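Box S2. Input/output pair 1.
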Amino acid sequence: MPGPRDDHVPGDFLAKAAARLRERTGADLTLAGQVHPRTRMLTIRSVDGARTDACLGMTAAPGQGTGGRVVALGLHLLDGYGGNSGRASGGRRQVSCSERVRSVLAMPLRLDGRVLYVLYLAQRTDKPISPAAISSALRYVRQLESFLAQTARRHQTDAPRRWDVDERALVQIDGELAQLSGEITRRPAKARIAAIRDLLADSVLEAMPPQEAGHILTRRELDVLGLVAEGCSNAEAAQRLAVSPETVKAYLRNIHSKLGVRSRTQAVNVARRSGLLP
């Protein structure tokens, strides 16, 4: 689980985020891009699993290509991807390269509602990105957003920490596990280490306080509501989250009660107005 440096400059943060995203999802290729604060231009700063360095430095204006649309909309997008090098108007290279990927999931990484970075995972085969990989990627992005929010708050106030987990120590533990995994060749052992790292990261996510004072839903309830906002039925949401439809219904009942609404549509609308959903 990567952590941003104290000065908020991406540095190793984007490289580690791309590498960890690929480990968690099994994607062929992952990329991480930074959004310019004034122009909103997206620039690819890090890649993992690439065959060449062709993607590094590629750019997209807001609304241009998959990444540019993510910046403009503030929502994650799943697209088919031609895999050939592309150019935008005026000769500027888009976020596309010679990696020949066939499908891509691009996700915004936000702080205070503003898209700072975009993370991608991509597949080179015609097989679509699996729902499990999508769900894992979105959970990881939420984790990074919480981590960035915690770091930003500590720079803005001298107030004591609001959670009792030493995230720096956990980041160091995760790094040690990653190094150990690289030194081990047996697949079962590597799989166990990967599972431990996922558990560590997810445990940190659950331990973090909400990003906003009005944030009254649990992480799992937000997962369910996010899928509802995407148009998923209870059965589809259950499949994506690897739970039963009855469990999804129970989450929705809690959500309706907490938000004071009577329908799924009302719940999504209230959550969006409150900043709980993009």
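Box S3. Input/output pair 2.
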Amino acid sequence: MPKLPKLDTTDRKMIRALQKNGRMTNLELAESVNLSPSPCLRRLRILEKEGVIRGYNVDVDATAYGLPITVFVRITLNGHTGDVVGQFEEEVNNIPEILECYVMTGGADYLLRVLSADLEDYERFVRERLHTIGHIRSIDTSFVYGVVKNAHVFPDIENRT
């Protein structure tokens, strides 16, 4: 994993502004963080080059897209050798229904966020995708029936109260 640069207050302001609106122009970004456009663009390019800003995304309504079911899946493996873990993680990276996969502490080894069209689609996913991976001891599923908060902007760590 590459060593990331230390960020200052202006870098963090730029990042939060872009998290709120990734389509803003450099001029708008510069104005929002009180910089002139040229130094702002230079800082932005450094953040991109150094891997702090890894890309730009569009936030899409999953229901409108046709995937209204969000599922959190806790996976426990039946072993933790390098081969077992490596195979599982490689397989997970090749399954498009899995949007996020976290290595966890506690009762489960991994937490997956999965999108599904309906319950039958989720059953197909489990039978044809998860079960074929192997080395899985248990699968514990929780279906999301409401969202209270879904933030995409990091907190301002300089101005916490």
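Caption for Box S3: The helical segments are 9-20, 26-32, 37-49, 62-65, 82-93, 119-130. Residues 56 and 134 are 34 Å apart (CA to CA).
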